[in-house]
Amino acid sequence: MNTLISSSTITIFVDYSQDRKYRYGYRKEWNKNKRNATFILMNPSKGTELKLDNTIVNINNYCVDNDFGSLTILNLFPLMATSPKELSGRLKEKSSENNQYIKTTLDKTKDIFIAWGYEKKYLRKKKEIEQILNLNNNKSKKIKCWSHNGKYPKHLRVMSEDWTVIDYKFKHIETK
To answer: Which stretch of DSSP H or E encloses residue 24?
Structure first.
């Protein structure tokens, strides 16, 4: 029998609060010689370094298919919750720590994908993050998102082949 054995080393880094109720960043690396893709989502679900949720799987598959060597996931809100309804009354928790984490991470990445969903909720926070992106942006950074039937940015818990990746157009601030 002729077989091929393949082996890979995958490193996953997750930055949690001490009580593990808040996740600031999730990074998965399988090839440090290739570029990183950074995704900004709404809030972390229950995905961990060992247990993957649908969003992490979809992002991972996109990155592998598009020749990235690592991915980073950031969120508007760091509270780990399976439903955005759980954010009610808790939007400011760990906000300054999360914003600082986002700023530091964006300084180190060139490929950014907005995937927090197109719903007209949490506009103040989306504006805040767009301001960070705008201040952090230069011509070498690419800010993209997924669109379908003119609606963007799409959330990636479910991905469809008829969605297209487009340049992200700031919706909540005036850009320079």
So the answer is: strand 23-29
* Domain assignment of residue 176, yes or no: no
Range of the domain at 49: 11-167
Buried b (16+ CB within 10 A) or exposed e, 33-72: eeebbbbbbbbbbebbeeebeebbebbbebbeeeebbbbb
Q: The whole model's pTM is what? A: 0.93
Residue 4 resides in a domain: no
Residue 87 in this model has a pLDDT that exceeds 90: no
Could you tell me if residue 83 is inside a domain?
yes
Looking at residue 87, the DSSP 8-state letter turns out to be: G
136 pLDDT more than 80: no
- Domain count along the chain: 1
Helix (H, G, I), strand (E, B) or coil at 12: strand
